[in-house]
Structures are given as C-alpha cells and as structure tokens.
Amino acid sequence: MAREAGDGWSEAERLLASCEFSLRVLRWQPTEDGHMDRNRPTHAIPPRERPSAASGRGYTEEDMEAIAEALGIPQDRR
C-alpha cells in the first residue's frame, strides 16, 4: 500500500488537512485568543501517530481496506 511508506495519509488527505488547519488559523486569528497568542490551533495528527485501534480509537487495517473499497479507491492508490 502506498500509505505504508509515509505518515498514513494520501496526498489528497494531506492537502485537505492543510486546508482545514489554515481555515482554523484564519478563524482563530481575529479572536481574543488570537490577539493574545493563546490556544493556538494545532495540526491534525497523522494516522501513523494516532493511538492504536487496540485502545479503542483509530482504524484497523481491515477498516481502512473496507473504507477504500466502499469509496472505490483503486488498489494501487491505497
């Protein structure tokens, strides 16, 4: 799988996470917290750095395969 080599995100997921973070920063900046530089937004945690599915959070390899299959993601892009 292509995701195994990196942090667990595809290029599209990485770009979406970057856009989502940028929007949260833009929303945070004009607030009182933004002016005082506190409670700064944080980046999303890549799948490889998240707690394991054994702890009740995250996705197992089988979950990821089922999701990819349901979304019609080709095998070479998983």
Any overview of this molecule?
42% of the residues lie in helices and 0% in strands. The chain has helices at residues 11-28, 32-35, 61-71. The chain is elongated, with a radius of gyration of 16 Å. The N and C termini lie close together (5 Å).
The biggest sheet, with number of strands, parallel, antiparallel or mixed sense and barrel status, is: none
**Strand segment tally:** 0
Rg over alpha carbons = 16 Å
Residue stretches low in confidence (pLDDT < 50, at least 5 long) are none
Helix vs. strand class:
mainly alpha
Q: What is the string of SSEs from the N terminus onward?
A: HHH
Question: Roughly how many Å apart are the termini?
Answer: 5 Å
Strand percentage lies at under 5%
Mean pLDDT level? 83
Percentage of helical residues? Answer: 40-55%
What is the number of helices?
3
Dominant shape = elongated
Set out the fold topology:
Blueprint: H1 11-28, H2 32-35, H3 61-71
Keyphrases for this structure?
about 80 residues, about 0% strand, mainly alpha, single chain
Q: Short summary of the structure?
A:
Helix content is about 40%, strand content about 0%. By secondary structure, the chain is an all-alpha fold.
